């Protein structure tokens, strides 16, 4: 994600207009638009300031690289099409069951 995409996401999550964010951050609406569209590349500190002006916080940390998705993709390529489809259907059933269990738990709480 670019800095502008973080700003856009934060603004949308909080239901703010570009004008409202600009007012909170002491910028003009066109400046916010240029940042969100990628015309301007803000510094990391500016992105953090804009996200905070939305009432959110942007937290960054360095973690070890995780190549597990790449290994899963390579393993999937070794499967034939039917096996890949079955595997994805099983994953979908698993996700749906998890969502249903979460909804049940929320309803019972």
Which terms summarize this structure?
2 domains, 70% helix
Beta-strand residue percentage: under 5%
The CATH superfamily name of the largest domain is lambda repressor-like DNA-binding domains
* N/C terminus separation: 36 Å
CATH topology of the largest domain: 434 Repressor (Amino-terminal Domain)
Q: Which shape, going by the Cα principal axes?
A: extended
Tally the beta strands. 0
The ordered H/E elements are HHHHHH
| Structural class computed from helices and strand pairing | mainly alpha
| Helix amount | 55-70%
Give the total of domains: 2
Low-confidence stretches: none
Number of discrete helical segments: 6
Mean of residue pLDDT values: 94
The biggest beta sheet is recorded as: none
Summarize the structure in words.
The chain has 109 residues and is an all-alpha fold. The chain folds into 2 domains: 51 residues, lambda repressor-like DNA-binding domains (434 Repressor (Amino-terminal Domain)), CATH 1.10.260; 41 residues. The longest helix has 28 residues. The chain starts with a helix and ends with a helix. The model has no long low-confidence stretch (mean pLDDT 94).
